[in-house]
Every structure is written in C-alpha cells, then in structure tokens.
Design a protein that fits this description.
This protein has 363 residues and is α/β, with parallel strands linked by helices. It contains 13 helices and 14 strands. The strands form three sheets. Strands 1, 5, 6, 7, 8, 11, 12, 13 and 14 form a nine-stranded mixed beta sheet that branches. Strands 2-3-4 form a three-stranded antiparallel beta sheet. Strands 9-10 form a two-stranded antiparallel ribbon. A hairpin with a 2-residue loop joins strand 7 and strand 8. Helix 3 packs across helix 4, helix 4 packs antiparallel against helix 5 and helix 7 packs parallel to helix 10. The two termini are 39 Å apart. The structure holds adenosine-5'-diphosphate and magnesium ion (MG). The site of adenosine-5'-diphosphate has 11 residues, from helix 4. Belongs to the TRAFAC class myosin-kinesin ATPase superfamily. Kinesin family. This is Kinesin motor domain-containing protein.
C-alpha cells in the first residue's frame, strides 16, 4: 500500500499557484558556524529545490541510518547554505521592490529562531533593494519602529529612545503610528546607513534589557515620495518564543504571549489574503494593526522568508519554525513529503532535484 502510494505520487505543484502574487513563503537555511562544528555539532537539514528536510538525529552516526525519521516541508523556494544573498534577493525581495516601484504596497517578513539569520538576510536584501530603488527614484523616506509586547518605540528617534509611541485610528479605520520620525534618503548608501542606525538602536537596547531583539518585532518602512506605495520589512521576534511559556519571569511570559498572539494574527491575515475573501482580522494584534495597509489593499504583496538553523541542537525550533511557515502558506505536509521518511540524509542529498518553474512563478 505504502509503495503503491509512493508510485502514484503526483508531480509537484506549487503550493500557492492559485495566488501567484499575493502571498509567498520562502525558507533559507544558514550554514553551521565554525564554533558549532568545533563543538561536534552537525547539520540535520537538507535543502533542495522547493523542499527542506529535517532529520531527527541524536548523533552524527544517525545521519546515515535508514531508521531515522525525518520531516519534509515544501515552500515557494528553499535556499540552502550555499545560496548567495543575490539569489535570495532575486527570488524574494526583487519582486517586492518592483511592486513598490509600480506604486503598490509590498511587505517582507523575516521569521525564524534567534540566531538563524533573520537580520543577516534582511541586511543583504536591504543593500540590494536600496540599489534597485534608486535606479528609479530620486528620494525615499524611511521610518522604523520596534514592537516589544504592547509597547512601540521609534528606532530613528535617537534623542527619545525610550519614549513610547502612540497609535490612532483614522476615519477609514486604519491605524496610524503617531509622531514617527521619518528620514529622507537620496542615495542607496544613505538609505542603508539609516537602516543600520535603526538596527543599532535596537541592538543597543538589547544589551541593556537582556536580548530585546529576540523579543521584539522591528518594522522598517520605505516610502516613495508623494505616494502611499510602501515597502515594509519586518524583522520578527525570535520564533522560539512561541514555545517559551513555562520558564522565565512574568515579563518574559507576557512578551511570549504577546508574540504568540501576533503570530496567530499574522497567520489569520495571511489566510484572508490567500483566499482573497473577507477582511483580514488585523485588529487582533498590535503588529497586524500597524501593518493593516499591508493586508487591506487588493494589490498588496506579501513575502515571508523563514530562516532556519541546520544544527541538531536546534531541531525542535527548526521544525517549529517550518510548521509555522506552512501555516502562513496554508499547506500541510503532504503524503509525498512524508514518503521521504525512510531515507538516510546522504541519500536525500544525493537525489537530483531539478528546479522546475510553473508559468505563474516565472512571471
Ligand atoms: P537573527 O537575526 O535571526 O537572530 P542573525 O541574522 O543575527 O540572526 O544571525 C546570527 C549570526 O549568524 C550572525 O553572525 C550572522 O552573520 C550569521 N548568519 C546568519 N545567516 C547566515 C548565512 N546565511 N550565511 C552566513 N552567516 C550567517
Ligand atoms: Mg536579529
């Protein structure tokens, strides 16, 4: 029965072919760090084509075992440790920048465990996006803020770093963040410098208040002059917080609960976007409220990039991240993917996997 189902398996179809442009979910696997290799850490993830497989190994020897279970997930595209920033840019952020340049709204979410490469990947994308944007635009404005629990702070207001930002509903029911500093950039270098300053504002606080960056969402918005067209980049709070509800102090638990609710709200908004019916329930969290424009326009584009660690010690968090990303994408693990379960990692890696594109994806 098992073998028969395996033989009958269908050719791959893109998970979100019906909505080629509205919601796209990608995954990037980072390399093992030198210090991880020195600590006998090993790589349990295989990225190929549109799939990523996580092996459930306790020891390095398990990688060759036929009896080790593993889990496969499929996304719009998966970038392995050898993928360059340029490749990631071309598939993920480049279409979003084009969307911006056509006066539309596009949003990029970086989602993953702390230390999996969210900020690193975003840096590479921003650098290329800045070059791309200024080929066409003379100036853009940047705003940046951070959401930690229920508190928002401006990342560009260096004189009032701790001031809490307020929000207001406008007549149309949209939520606006009040008193945000905005900086005008007139070159790619300047835009990048502002972005770096904003990231640093976050990092400084992080060392003061114990790792805030893993507990907060950072939102960067690049706006075309005289236009509502916006490119939003969201460096999400560490996805490991989702499970982190047993330990730690009350403050930490409260933050974790808040992050949980924002991720849940995100999933619901993604779902509404995919089905293109009904209003996205963006009122359910502060993050989705302030991003309501990202979800409410018919022409909005959403791209999520999940980052995962390949290290065996992070297996649980990697699987948690990939499951959450599948929910954002609206797919379940398929039978076909579960069929992979009886192959050792070396076999999975050997398999050739030509990248095939559907017409919708080429567009
Ligand atoms: P996060 O923002 O998810 O907590 P970071 O982006 O800070 O994680 O990444 C943690 C470390 O790993 C950084 O030193 C970063 O430079 C490095 N890193 C992450 N992804 C990659 C990658 N794809 N290639 C090389 N180094 C990476
Ligand atoms: Mg980070």
């Amino acid at each position: 029965d098992y073998v028969q189902r395996w033989r009958q398996r269908q050719p791959e179809t893109p998970p979100n072919e019906a909505e080629p442009c509205r919601v796209r979910v990608y995954v990037r696997k980072r390399p093992l760090f030198g210090y991880e290799q020195e600590a006998e850490e090993f790589d349990v993830a295989t990225a190929k084509g549109r799939k990523i497989v996580i092996h459930n190994c306790l020891t390095k020897a398990d990688l060759r075992s036929l009896f080790i279970s593993h889990m496969g997930f499929q996304f719009a595209e998966v970038f392995g440790e050898a993928a360059s920033d340029e490749e990631v840019y071309q598939s993920t952020a480049c279409p979003a920048v084009q969307h911006l340049l056509q006066n539309k709204v596009a949003t990029l979410f970086m989602f993953g465990q702390t230390g999996s490469g969210k900020t690193h990947t975003m840096g590479g994308l921003v650098q290329r996006a800045a070059q791309h944007i200024f080929q066409q635009e003379p100036t853009v404005t940047l705003t940046a803020f951070e959401i930690a629990g229920k508190v928002m702070r401006d990342l560009l207001d260096h004189t009032h770093k701790e001031k809490e930002l307020k929000i207001r509903e406008d007549k149309g029911g949209n939520t606006q963040v009040l008193g945000l500093h905005s900086l005008e950039a007139s070159s790619p270098e300047q835009l990048q410098r502002f972005m770096t300053e904003a990231q640093n504002g976050r990092a400084t606080r992080a060392t003061q208040v114990n790792e805030t960056s893993s507990r907060s969402h950072a939102v960067f918005q690049i706006r075309k002059a005289d236009s509502t067209a916006t490119l939003t980049l969201v460096d999400c709070a560490g996805s490991e917080r989702r499970e982190d509800t047993t330990n730690h102090d009350a403050r930490s638990r409260k933050d974790a609960a808040e992050i949980n609710s924002s991720i849940h709200a995100l999933k619901e908004c993604f779902r509404a976007m995919r089905s293109a019916k009904g209003q996205p329930p963006y009122r359910e969290s502060l993050l989705t409220r302030v991003l309501s424009d990202s979800f409410s326009s018919d022409e909005a584009m959403i791209v999520a990039i999940g980052t995962v660690s390949p290290a065996a010690k992070d297996t649980e968090h990697s699987i948690g991240t990939l499951r959450a990303l599948q929910q954002l994408q609206g797919t379940q693990m398929t039978l076909e993917e579960r069929e992979d379960v009886l192959k050792p990692k070396v076999e999975v890696e050997k398999e050739s996997h030509p990248k095939t594109w559907s017409e919708a994806e080429v567009r």
